[in-house]
Amino acid sequence: MKWKQRGFLLILIIAVISTGILLYERINTERQAKTAEIILDYDEFVTFAKQLDMTPEAMFTKMAESQVSSVAIKEDSLYSLVEEGKPITYAIYKNLIKDIHWKDDFSGEALTYLENHTGDYDMVVSTYDDALYARLKAAIIARYDEDFYHFFEESDLKVMVLKGVREDLYYVEYGKINDVNSDGIKNPRTIVSSAVEDIGLGYDPEKIAAVKASGLEINLRPSNFYKYNSHIVKAYFDDVDRYGAKINEVIFNGNQILSYQKETGQYSPDLYKTLKARNIPVGLIESGVQRGFSEQDGIEYIAKDMDYEVVRIFPIIEYIQQRYDYLGYYEGPIEIENTMYRAITERNIRSVYFRPFKKTDFTYYDNLDEYITMFDQLADRLSAHHISLGKSSVMPYNGVSPILLIFTGWGLLVLGLIILKWVFGLSDKWQVIILIIGMVGIIGANYAVPNMSLELFAFLAAIIFPTLAIMVMFEYVMDLLKLKGQIAFKKIILKASIGLLGSLLLCLIGGLTVGAIMSKSNYLVEMSFYRGVKASLVLPIVIFIVVYFIKMGYKRNEALDQSPIEDIKRFLNEDFKIYYVLILGVVAVVGYVYIARSGHETGIEVLNGEIIFRNFLENVLIARPRTKEILIAFPALCGVFYLAARQYKIALFPFTLVAVLGFTSVVNTFCHARTPIYLSFFRELIAIGIGLIIGIMVMFVLELIHRIYVSYSRRKKYE
Fold first, then answer.
1. Nearest to 414 by CA among 12, 2, 4, 691
2. For residue 357, which of 169, 198, 307, 535 sits 20 to 30 Å off, Cα-Cα?
């Protein structure tokens, strides 16, 4: 049916063009975000300054000599004020009145109100510092509704009462209380405070003055209270203007975005309007497992409303701060620099929220010049990727055309039909029927469930292209087996190189297809995820095993029935040996490690030696190839072709199984949409090159073993 072949070819050409357009649009989007920002955390650097007997101004003046752009200052809160030693106290009313002498501290209207109108969970705040009281009072009035607060100032002790409810309580559990018979009597919960201690109370002018005197910009981090907050947006931006802050991205403090209300589950439209009018993007703080973002109520809504024009922020959290002199191999902050480099180049991070190097949980390394050197080295390394340090940059919104996606889906459908034809001998009639139904279904799915269909197409691409590579590998192996070993070693190297490049090129095209499909902005900034990573790693392996039985059989030779059913019977009738169980156990462990290590959420850690090797590759190459590809999978693929050429059919299965892991790994590289497409592409090109070189070395070793075996066994004369 020539018309069917022409139709398939036409669909594939259209699909290639459509995929290419999607790919170009993604590349063009990613290349517009080529600057990253270093932001210092005010609180930790001031703690560091105290350790060095430096003033905050002196500390930030020194840090201004490096590539740092700004300093982030959080709003004051009751908790932070007490922690900083400010002359202020606070307590929940229910705890306050437990002291029988509590009334001695209050007088006049404040005492009358506390005795008659205060709720059990209201927060009672008091201070003798008039200036501090005036600043906090002004901040509260500017931010919160009138029914939230009451002020009393007729005496020297200034009092504020802030309304609280039971749902806001903080408590601790001290364990079960037993009687003398060891029977449980109580499991007490002691109320210690409430969420009111963490609400935003404006910014300390002294902190801002210290930063501005250093020449660094200030980034004001707003806090939210989930109720009584109708004025909070205006108050925040009034502070931004008052203090001359230049906000490259707004970094919300706490677990909610500014103006979010728990009762409605929404944020104020004023926040969106002001951010858009001032062209300020929202900061997404990356999670501790370096996947996705830290949850803050309302963050997904505001990011979506702003068309995902956001800034991904990498926080230097404590375990990274402590990677100074890492592994006893790296001197100084080299590994901390490495983590920032990877975040910026590999994960579309455009702002690093930096904290100082930690020596212990409470002390810091004290060489300030190391910060300047480290940031200079980081800037130099980033320049190879055409990224510079300065103001954070934002990728413009990138959508995915439904029409182009449909055409790409049709191309995947045709490739799937080609695979079915090869594996099961699907007739031309059924191919046409499935093609028509599939094309209609792809159109319907793309408009009925667009987000689901996008991930489905990406998943299909992640399965189909490794399967095509399996198909090429098998056909190549069958051709080599037909040569009956009559081939020179030089030709084996040539044929193995061609086979490796051909099969991996298909996988590379598949990866680019996945990257093109998942080029929507919410995937690029990792607000959404490709959820088929594990399945797309496992399913091609299952397909390989099925195909192996169909194409290669089990202990099959020309004298036996070569149908897959007979192969299965021979396998099931096999004498079961103990070493089979041992081999199966090893395969299971290796498989688990392979799947589990495909993300950051697993408890399986990378070996120290591998970390050092990875970092070496990262420093000498534009993109670090995957270790499992260059050291295991790709050399195994060369081994497959060598063994087939030398007629060692019995050893083919384990080598081909390992090679298939490489096929899935290549495509999987592109499933992480947060990684720029150019980096994934070069990573795999480099991996293929290094893997081929190591593969050729493996073939030399196998050839040496082969010659020794032939010479020893005298079974045949070596050519």
1. 12
2. 198
Nearest by Cα to 228 from 151, 144, 162, 158 = 144
Phi, psi values for residue 646, rounded to 5°: -95, 5
The two tokens of residue 601 are 């959420």
Determine contact, residues 338/350, Cβ cutoff 8 Å.
no
Tokens 């201070």 sit at which residue?
127
- Residue 637 token pair: 């693929």
The crossing angle, in degrees rounded to 10, of helices 42-51 and 56-63 is 110
* Distance in angstroms (rounded) separating the CA atoms of residues 590 and 48: 45
Interior/surface letters 138-167, b for 16+ CB within 10 angstroms, e for the rest? ebbeebbeeebbbbbbeeebbbbbbbbeee
> Residue 137 corresponds to which amino acid?
K
Q: What are phi and psi of 124, to 5 degrees?
A: -105, 120
pLDDT for 24: 96
Please say whether the beta carbons of 93 and 169 come within 8 A.
no
Which alpha helices (H) appear in 482-577, and where do they start and end? 489-517, 521-524, 533-551, 564-572
CB–CB of 507/672 below 8 Å? no
At 560 the pLDDT is 55
pLDDT of residue 243: 95
Q: How far apart are CA 469 and CA 444, in angstroms?
A: 30
Q: Which amino acid appears at position 574 of this protein?
A: E
Q: How many residues does the chain have?
A: 719
**H or E element that contains 162:** strand 158-162
The structure tokens listed for 329 are: 């191999």
Buried b (16+ CB within 10 A) or exposed e, 209-245: ebbbebebbbbbbbbbbbbbbebbbebbbebbeebeb
0.85 cut: is pTM over it? Answer: yes
3-state SS, residue 19: helix
Residues in Cβ contact with 177 at an 8 Å cutoff, skipping those fewer than 6 apart:
184, 185, 186, 187, 188
Cβ–Cβ < 8 Å for 550, 423? yes
pLDDT digits (tens, 9 = 90+) for 533-544: 888 888 998 888
Rounded CA separation 599/617 (Å): 20
Q: Where does 570-627 show beta strands of DSSP type E?
A: none
Of 512, 471, 544, the C-alpha closest to 677 is 512
Which residues, given as ranges, of the chain have pLDDT below 50?
Answer: 559, 716-719
The two structure tokens encoding residue 369? 């010049």
Q: Tell me the three state secondary structure of residue 315.
A: strand
Question: What is the C-alpha separation between 497 and 693, in angstroms, rounded?
Answer: 9
Structure tokens of 159?
Answer: 């009092």
Q: What pLDDT is stored for residue 282 in this prediction?
A: 97
Which pLDDT score, from 0 to 100, does residue 703 have? 92
